[in-house]
């Protein structure tokens, strides 16, 4: 039994091309071509496909909406999004909308067949996008990571721990007092402290104080 | 009361008095003029700001339209050309080689189109959470260049309209582009910190600092006018160890309540 596939894209030439390409594989059969999401869904009661390839940008109903509807009403139909966009946020949105795969419109024929067979066998296939972790300040330093402090904020924290005034810190780092005050406020917010006294207490009692101090000694020695 | 004793016609005696009165009149008149000029200046400035606001709106609308056209027409056609090229069968190896090089050309062109579209406006800007857009932007920056960008955003809440978000996005973009182009930095940190009453955008780099003219407010026009549109405040702190931008954008009442 060949895999029954429906296509949805408002660009005729593209769907024709893809149908011709898929026609070269005897295991695949393109049964219908729709020009938007609504037209595709209207075809479903007549004959339920095994798989659909849909574009994101379409008139009347776009691919992501159609994908969500298919996920909710026809969970057996596997959806692959074929889009011209390669933005991380759209790929994520496609995943959340229930798509099993995401292909770029300018993919190779091999990628296309590979993805279709992978999805047909029950797996998923999404392009690799390096997601920046939200907390990416010096991942080796657990202390910074724990509180999302930036390197600059750590530097200022060190200077505060040496009882420097804002003016002294500003001079030391070649920054204005306003910048230092803003950094100070942000540090307090990130550490969830309310008063300067609480900050001092945090610096003195926190086990990581020794880490900061040790780092500072190293700087002094070097 | 000696000044009643002046005889009529004794004008010379009254001269100092007349002189004093005329000086006072002129002064009052000048003060009045200054006030009215100030008012006019204020009105004109406001009109300039309105004009700028209008200009930015038009610019964004145009960008959106061009991006949509680029993607829908040129991008889609290129994809169609590619698909069809691939589905053709070739009679000789020579033909196939030519088709392969054509495919490469199409690929390059569609990549260029995609980049251009994205630079105009990220796709589906209105319907995507703002933090994902920023995340996406910084991950693309990170894979591109020599500058290590650190990005941090605390719990962002939907307190801005999508128009305001676009302004904020443009500010962040402009500042990061300036760092890439001019700062000669090796590292930069961008933080979007959400506070209950305002949003703080903090952009720091360890580059060569801004030229003196820029620090005095020349240049950075598009950033300044966008900050003004958001009723925000900008603080620039630049020296030989790098530049720090601190921008505060107040949360507008209609969205906060």
From TrEMBL, chain A:
GO terms for molecular function: DNA binding. PROSITE patterns: HTH_LUXR_2 (PS50043), RESPONSE_REGULATORY (PS50110). InterPro entries: CheY-like_superfamily (IPR011006), NreC/VraR/RcsB-like_REC (IPR058245), Sig_transdc_resp-reg_C-effctor (IPR016032), Sig_transdc_resp-reg_receiver (IPR001789), Tscrpt_reg_LuxR_C (IPR000792), WalR-like (IPR039420). Residues 4-120 form the Response regulatory domain. SUPFAM superfamilies: C-terminal effector domain of the bipartite response regulators, CheY-like. Residues 142-207 form the HTH luxR-type domain. Keywords: DNA-binding, Phosphoprotein, Transcription, Transcription regulation. It comes from the Bacteria. It holds the Pfam family Response_reg. The modification 4-aspartylphosphate is found at residue 55. GO terms for biological process: phosphorelay signal transduction system; regulation of DNA-templated transcription. PANTHER family: NITRATE_NITRITE RESPONSE REGULATOR PROTEIN NARP, TWO-COMPONENT RESPONSE REGULATOR. This is DNA-binding response regulator. It comes from Chitinophaga silvisoli.
